[in-house]
Amino acid sequence: MTLSKKERLQIAEQAALRVIRPQDDVLDWSLQSAHHVHELLMVQAVTTEMELMDPTKSIDVDSLPTLPELGDLNQQVEVPAPVPRRRVGWWLALAATAAIAATAWLLHSSPLSPPQLSYATAVGEQRSVKLTDGSVVTLNTDSRVELRFSAQAREIQLSKGEAVFVAQHDAARPFAVVTDTARVVALGTEFNVYQHHDSTRVTVIEGAVLVSATRGVKVRLSAGEAAEIRASQILKTKQAAVQRDLAWRTRKLVFSDRTLAEAVEEFNRYNKLPIRVEGIALGRRSISGVFDADDSQPLLDFLKEDPHVEVVRTQQAIVIRDSSR
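Request: output the structure for the sequence above.
Response:
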């Protein structure tokens, strides 16, 4: 059934009322139409964003623009009577305003397409997000995820970087994390996923996961186990590597016989002034130790002790090179 713009905006307002101020009829109301389900999902997504954006409720909702103040949009959509803001409370006012505005902007898209959310962190930033299903995603530095939740499944695309996922159990909706080379299905668990160039590293903290490579290879990983997944190969790694994989949660970098090039690459994920290694042989030099992710100076000081290594700092980068060449 095709709805008019006015009808869709009215449904958006009704959904906002039922999400922010729960009513006994929310289930019956949602079952009346797929449009009702769509708007409920939209409002739930909006309220999650509001909680993250303004946890102290400091935004003055009376100063927010209403649809008549949005220029051309008012010429296309007839707006329902505004929700009495002070009477219904801060969250309802903000969410209702946001939901109605969001619906108006989305009128030209598919009316039943589920909302897709994305979360990202900048270089050096870490962030935890509680999802609408109760699951929690903690993003490491310079990372990005896209959520594709529906009534049948919960899928998260890790398109960049690294994150820890704490999956809320829901047998009717499997929880999966997807990268370029792997699909990780939670079996009631907490796990870390690192999308790294042409491979994915999965480390299980609690419970278990089912890991699939893009070309069909599958393996089950339990708590304390980790694996490197490529397009057609899954390699389990030693349990000693698990603590190393999770050290980022305390902003530590743990290197055990890693190359200098690999160590520098990890530091560059956290620091805005990049480090560059010149020379293949120098880049292959072995490095071990525990470092503060936000402070590369101890690593640089260690390298300076070698008379054949030169460290040059410019405004654009820190360059490590072989001074004997």
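Confidence is low (pLDDT under 50) at residues 66-91, 103-113.
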